[in-house]
Design a protein that fits this description.
The structure is a single chain. The radius of gyration is 14 Å and the shape is globular. It has 3 helices and 7 strands; from the N terminus they run ββββαβββαα. Strands 1, 2, 3, 4, 5, 6 and 7 form a 7-stranded mixed beta sheet that branches. By secondary structure, it is an alpha+beta fold.
Length: 136
């Protein structure tokens, strides 16, 4: 069996009080699921620069302070991803769905648990919003 190529990717768990920003994915991978905004790292970008760019492209928001939180391996159909999840602080503005996001809004943990959310996203959310943190 041939090994799949692994691409670097990033996402941002943007925190505003007791809520996290989620986008409804409009494209694969994870189409139809709520997740943190993010995507591929482009040539020449650092992981943090890529995370800030993806956040702006998908939601129009800018993060204040931001730091790496957890690295996840995500299996895809054609390519696998090493996904660096950042945690960031909300710095203002209203979330607008753009790019490959069909919706964007801030959710409490209770609201997240009622949505179609990837388990890894829910796990990170529980860790950041007062639950236990055990990334998948």
């Amino acid at each position: 069996m041939q090994r799949k190529h692994i691409r670097p990717a990033v996402s941002v768990a943007l925190k505003r009080g007791d809520r996290l920003l989620l986008v409804l994915r409009g494209r694969a991978p994870s189409r139809g699921y709520y997740a943190f905004p993010g995507g591929h790292v482009e040539a020449g970008e650092t992981l943090e620069i890529a995370a800030r760019r993806e956040l702006m492209e998908e939601t129009g928001l800018v993060a204040g302070a931001m730091s790496p939180l957890v690295m996840l391996h995500v299996e895809g159909d054609e390519v696998d991803y090493d996904l660096q999840v950042f945690v960031g602080e909300y710095a203002g503005g209203e979330a607008q769905a753009a790019s490959d996001a069909d919706a964007a809004a801030f959710f409490t943990l209770e609201e997240m648990e009622a949505l179609p959310v990837l388990e890894s996203v829910l796990s990170v959310g529980r860790g950041l919003l007062g639950g236990t943190h055990a990334p998948a």
